[in-house]
Design a protein that fits this description.
Number of strands: 13
Main location: membrane
GO biological process, one term: brassinosteroid metabolic process
Largest sheet: 6 strands, mixed
Pfam family, one: p450
Bound molecules: protoporphyrin IX containing FE
Number of helices: 20
GO molecular function, one term: monooxygenase activity
Keywords: Heme, Iron, Membrane, Metal-binding, Monooxygenase, Oxidoreductase, Transmembrane, Transmembrane helix
Structural class: alpha+beta
Strand content: 5-15%
């Protein structure tokens, strides 16, 4: 009998179901997968970045890897123990502390340069005009870059989509943020602020007339409550639970973030990874419950969708035409998750720095209070009055300039394109350090590091020498959808505080801004409150 040795060895033409052939097939497949994985890793981490780097360097661009201060990157982003323990004077020159890595690179290589985050190549673009050009995105060819797996654990939604999906979501969400709709949410804002004020008043009642308070935590609770009430109306208690879970999730994400350049890291069965997935499941379950309950009420009982963000979003979705032009329940869940992530911490950061800065500059605190009392007296602030607060608006803008909650923004080139005379291949990640643009003396003047709300006396467009380069809420088509919401909330809270209290920084306060996704006060924000 003749045996086809080659066919048998390879399992071709032989009995493929025999154990040895099967294991050979499995072995071959595993080898192919391994080869593919090695190729992908080499392509992503080595070949592609090097190709991009060569193309950019050939045009005269310089750069180096991020040089962090030596030491751990463990629990707070970029600062090591030594840098962390050093208090900084209460000045507003915070870039060396919050973005030393970017400052070093830009100092050495100029406002447009190459850098590396692990194996990932990024372009740092700190040139104000170019940042504006990129955010304006006239060509429509810039994309966001989001780690979709990590994003899913936080929130995907509007902020991470591109192209048609983004346009559809933005169109559906826009009506919920119109000023008229925000006006109807004002009672929710003032209810939450009243709760905060009452808790401060009761602390003061048991004291000798002044009391130290850490506003950082209080403002996070306030803005979390505002999002819960304005998003979910009567279901806001479930909203509160979501907000607690989201807060824990944010901390865990930060822990995971430092390992994210390891391929497949989120699949490792670490304690942190497992808990993040568990939290995400619980949040999604709660949100699905709230959404389905609301949809049932709208369909079966003919109830109106309500004037909260969820109701307005569902209503707008319903009116959006065919199902292809509508969001699915999963999409709505992601958008609700995003409201917390995009809207809670950013606004609490703004309020915190505002009180800290007004503690450093009591003359502006007095001016703001005078204005608030002249518009509202001791009455509850109303929508029209909040729109007339000029000094308060100037103060909030100046705080957003010096302490932008989102320190850097990012984009990706979706195809080859020219920016500032340089040709960028497709797929280049662009890091836009907003904080450096906001602290650039060439556009803001020599007094750039001083707190001078008067630079906004004639609005944003006149605050800088040339075109506006004020980007706390981004710019262009992807400008923050919640900016009016946030400004209204901040004005309401600040007005109610100024009506009742005066405050100064506590001696126990250490000025230590640092970035953990947004710009936090590292050691809290302790102020001393006195009743007026
Ligand atoms: C002081 C408070 C806030 C600040 C500083 C802020 C900042 C920003 C910035 C800088 C962007 C643009 C990101 C980019 O271009 O890459 C953005 C987008 C966004 N923000 Fe805000 N935000 C604030 C409050 C809010 C609130 C209260 C909400 C919702 C309740 C919100 C929801 C969003 C959403 C959904 C986007 C994505 C928009 C899009 O991509 O089309 N933000 N925000």
């Amino acid at each position: 009998m003749e045996v086809d040795v080659a066919a048998t060895t390879l399992g071709v033409g032989g009995d493929v179901s025999s154990p040895s052939s099967l294991s050979l097939l499995c072995g071959l497949s595993a080898l192919l997968v391994l080869l593919w994985a090695v190729f992908r890793a080499a392509e992503t981490c080595w070949l592609r970045p090097r190709r991009l780097s060569r193309a950019l360097r050939a045009q005269g661009l310089g750069g180096t890897a991020y040089r962090f201060p030596a030491g751990d990157l463990a629990d707070n982003g970029w600062l090591n123990e030594e840098a962390r323990s050093k208090p900084m004077p209460p000045c507003h020159d915070i870039v060396p502390r919050v973005a030393p890595h970017l400052l070093n690179i830009v100092k050495e290589h100029g406002n447009v340069c190459i850098t590396w985050f692990g194996p990932v190549l990024r372009m740092v673009i700190a040139e104000p005009k170019l940042v504006r050009e990129i955010l304006s995105d006239k060509s429509g060819h810039f994309e966001k870059f989001t780690n979709k797996r990590l994003g899913k654990l936080i929130a995907l939604g509007l902020a991470s989509y591109d192209g048609e999906k983004w346009a559809m979501h933005r169109r559906i969400l826009n009506p919920a943020f119109h000023l008229e709709k925000l006006k109807s949410m004002l009672p929710a804002f003032s209810t939450c602020c009243t709760e905060l004020i009452s808790s401060w008043e009761s602390k003061l009642a048991g004291s000798d007339g002044s009391h130290e308070i850490d506003i950082w935590e209080d403002f996070q609770n306030l803005t979390g409550d505002v999002i819960s009430r304005t998003s979910f109306g009567s279901s806001f208690m479930e909203g509160r639970r979501i907000f607690q879970l989201q807060a824990e999730q944010a901390e865990r994400i930060i822990k995971a973030f430092q390992y994210m350049y390891i391929p497949g890291y989120l699949f490792f069965p670490t304690e942190n990874n497992k808990r993040m997935k568990q939290i995400n499941r619980e949040i999604e379950g709660l949100l699905r419950g709230i959404i389905e309950k609301r949809e049932r009420a709208m369909e079966n009982d003919g109830l109106s969708s309500g004037n909260d963000l969820l109701g307005l979003m569902l209503q707008s979705n319903k009116e959006s035409g065919t199902s292809r032009m509508r969001m699915s329940t999963e999409d709505v869940i992601e958008e609700c998750k995003l409201f917390y992530f995009a809207g809670m911490e950013t606004t609490s950061v703004l309020l915190t720095w505002t009180l800290v800065v007004l503690g450093m500059h009591p003359e502006w605190q007095d001016r703001a209070r005078e204005e608030v009392l002249s518009v509202f007296g001791k009455d509850k602030p109303n929508f029209d009055g909040l729109g007339r607060l000029k000094t308060v608006t100037m103060i909030l803008y100046e705080v957003l300039r010096l302490y932008p909650p989102a320190v850097t923004l990012n984009r990706k080139t979706s195809r080859q394109m020219q920016i500032g005379g340089i040709t960028y291949p497709a797929g280049v990640l662009l890091e836009l350090p907003i904080i450096m643009v906001h602290h650039n003396p060439d556009v803001w003047g020599k007094d750039v590091l001083e707190f001078k709300p008067e630079r906004f006396a004639e609005g944003i467009s006149k605050a800088t020498k040339d075109q506006p380069v004020f980007f706390p809420f981004g710019w262009g088509p992807r400008i923050c959808i919640g900016q009016n919401f946030a400004m209204l909330e901040a004005k309401m809270a600040l007005s109610m505080i100024l009506q009742r209290f005066e405050f100064q920084l506590s001696p126990s306060y250490t000025h230590a801004p640092y970035t953990v996704i947004t710009l936090h006060p590292q050691h809290g924000a302790q102020i001393i409150l006195k009743s007026l």
